[in-house]
Amino acid sequence: MVRILRIIIGMALSGIFAASAMAQETQTCAALNEAITGGSNFGFFSALAHGSKPKGLQLQINGTGAVPQVSYFITPASARQNPNDPAYWSLDKAKPPITIMNGSFWTAKTLKPGKYIIQFSTPYRSWVEELEIAKKDGRYQQSITVTGDDKLLYSTNGLVDESAFPLVTASH
Predict the structure, then answer these.
(1) DSSP element (H, E) containing 145
(2) Residue 42 CB neighbours (<10 A)
(3) Pairs from 128-131 (Cβ < 8 Å, separation ≥ 24)
(4) Per residue, what are the HEC states of 71-129?
(5) What pLDDT, in 10s, does the model give residues 6-43?
(6) Sheet containing strand 43-48, strands side by side
(7) Angle at Cα 151 formed by Cα 150 and Cα 153, nearest 5°?
(8) CB 57 within 8 Å of CB 110
């Protein structure tokens, strides 16, 4: 009887250890997938004004976490994401992919008030930002809406920050 009890306990412990090992393997695979694909992380642009007479509003990339191999393309909203419309190519050109990190990073890109569509893509997924910049009562305002996977990822309306200074400047 004692021997049978020991066998049963041994089998139960083996099952627990096997389940624990499978759980660790699942967590490791999930972490690896997150690192490779960026998981549910995404990025978006926001505008920053500096000085009282900017040539345009400088853009910064805001990331919710690391997303590797990101390509983005900025077009006027009037081009309706149509590559056959000459306006589609008026603001941007093809460039090497970047990695979006958690936080905000200034870019060398500037935009004047208007409505824009920014298409983001990675080898694993894509998302779209609608950015509107307007000047009201002498102050710049922006509206940002980011959608992906048929759902809203981020949305905000408010004043453009006119006092921020860059900590990191990206080359894109």
Answers:
(1) strand 139-148
(2) 25
(3) 129/44, 129/45, 130/77, 131/44, 131/45, 131/46, 131/47
(4) EEEEEEHHHCCCCCCHHHHCCCCCCCCEEECCEEEEEEEEECCEEEEEEEECCCCEEEE
(5) 666 655 546 555 555 555 665 666 555 555 555 778 88
(6) 43-48, 57-63, 103-111
(7) 135
(8) yes
